[in-house]
């Protein structure tokens, strides 16, 4: 019985820690709203670099007219492709 409690306690602690990390991932930094904008800009630059490496620089600039998709659809597709790996 003692081992079972230990496993249960570890699973509960792990789940709480995961939830905490998830909240941190999607929260804004305290005290410096500009930090969020800078971080998002860096992430966008990295994303566009990946897209440019795949499709070429001229076709790498997202837009609903050019790609006939929305940002939400594109992100959903990337998440789905990543999850399959």
The overall average pLDDT, rounded, is 75
Question: Helix tally?
Answer: 4
Largest sheet: none
Q: What structural category do the secondary elements indicate?
A: mainly alpha
- The succession of helices and strands, N to C, reads HHHH
Give the DSSP E fraction (strand runs of 2 or more residues): under 5%
Oligomer: single chain
Distance between the ends = 38 Å
Total number of beta strands: 0
Q: Nearest-angstrom radius of gyration?
A: 19 Å
What general form does the structure show? Answer: extended
Low-confidence stretches: none
Helix content: over 70%
How is this structure best described in words?
The structure is a single chain. The chain is an all-alpha fold and 85 residues long. It is 76% helix and 0% strand. The chain contains 4 helices and no strands.
């Amino acid at each position: 019985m003692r081992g079972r409690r230990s496993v249960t306690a570890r699973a509960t602690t792990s789940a709480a820690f995961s939830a905490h990390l998830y909240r941190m991932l999607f929260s804004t930094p305290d005290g410096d709203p500009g930090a969020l904008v800078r971080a998002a800009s860096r992430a966008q630059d990295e994303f566009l670099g990946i897209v440019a490496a795949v499709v070429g620089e001229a076709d790498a600039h997202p837009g609903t007219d050019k790609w006939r998709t929305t940002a939400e659809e594109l992100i959903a597709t990337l998440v789905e492709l990543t999850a399959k790996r």
